[in-house]
Fold these 2 entries.
Entry 1:
Amino acid sequence: MTARFPEARPRRLRTSPAMRQLVAETRVHPSDLILPLFVKEGASSPVPVSSMPGVVQHTRDSVRKAVNDAVSAGVGGVMLFGIPEVKDDRGSGADDPAGVVQRSLRDLSDEFGSDIVVMADLCLDEYTSHGHCGLLTKSGDVDNDATLERYASIAVAQAAAGVSVVAPSGMMDGQVAAIRSALDTAGYSNVAILAYAAKYASAFYGPFREAAESAPQFGDRAAYQQDPANVTEALREIRMDVAEGADMVMVKPGLAYLDIIVRAAAETDVPLSAYQVSGEYAMVEAAAANGWLDRERVILETLTSYRRAGARQILTYWAEEAARALR
Ligand code: PBG
């Protein structure tokens, strides 16, 4: 090729790892990562989740060790999910001061509260006998406004147990406002809200429902979670949650919804999180176990794509491992 000046040669900037690192437009930092953790009431040893190899339902003790490891890897936060021993139609375990998440939150905020951000998922599906995210009407629909009262009570219980961030994931209308006002009234104005603002009714949650023992016993969640076909609706949900007082907002799932992350990042000025959900984890683990994908490279590539799309924080079951790889 005859060189002519000036000639664009983008490959000059790809000649060595150091050069590529120097010009990288996107970085993933360990503190961007949030590790979801499951804690199971009454468990005497960690219980493996078969559809999520490497993920377990923790005991109260083993979850402390997991958070300790996350802290030492530099992970930014942990998100706690509870699995109660007893479920009922109103999800009583969710706001019981002696409930599984509240007990763990006390342990974790005492031990690690200044080293990592301790968050809790705020929902009812793990705690209800019917597996839905809210209270049911007689005809079996989820009763939005009755559910808000339950969410408000859960928020206060989690705050009393030392949580720093509550993360409502039930997609009820008005949930952020109800939770903000309950927290403020109870004197917890410092507790932040990370709203699962644009949460889709996704088949990618399949493995999570094994991990959290939270599959709906009838029907599905399509009457409260979003339709995968919609974009502007997600932006509306995000705007509403921010107006109601959300400190951070989330898009979920991530990989099949990178376009939503891009749009959300452009249109909101609060920190934007995205959740790399159980089905994304399971797909990569299954392919890697078959020798079909290079596991480590795929993990880092997906995390990079989340950040490139505009997510500030990423919830991922690989948080600890990825944090160590990125240090
Ligand atoms: C509801 C909740 C779900 C997830 C997080 N919070 C399940 C659902 O909506 O059915 C899914 C997370 C994942 O798949 O990793 N409490």
Entry 2:
Amino acid sequence: MEQTLSIIKPDAVAKNVIGKIVDRFETNGLKIAAMKRVQLSAADAGAFYAVHAQRPFFGELVEFMTSGPVVVMVLEGENALSKNRELMGATNPKEAEAGTIRADFAESIDANAVHGSDSLENAKIEINFFFCGREIA
Ligand code: ADP
Ligand code: MG
């Protein structure tokens, strides 16, 4: 069984579509193995997105990710990582396939509703960033 980290970003939390997004995961066979709502500090967001520290949009990304609460989840299931990426759609919602979370709930390339781990190695790091062992069940 594979695990991956998902984040419902501040734009989608503000739109009150947490349940609608979680439903996409459950309907498509992914189990919510852990879930919590948190307010990230700038230090939290900067550490989480450290791989993007050199990108021109890093400052905006940290500002956006701290602009309101997020919901972090561990998704579990067969091919959970690629299944989640498929359900999310492309980074830019304007390029995201119809029926994907980003096509349906996101407005722009920065405020794009959800995060998903991009490799199993990063999934492990990201899951450990937010959750301790007993929180994943
Ligand atoms: P993804 O979230 O699809 O894995 P990336 O890892 O490339 O995409 O980027 C991380 C996040 O940084 C994106 O989800 C988005 O919020 C933000 N981002 C990416 N590219 C841009 C950009 N050109 N301008 C502003 N924000 C961006
Ligand atoms: Mg990424």
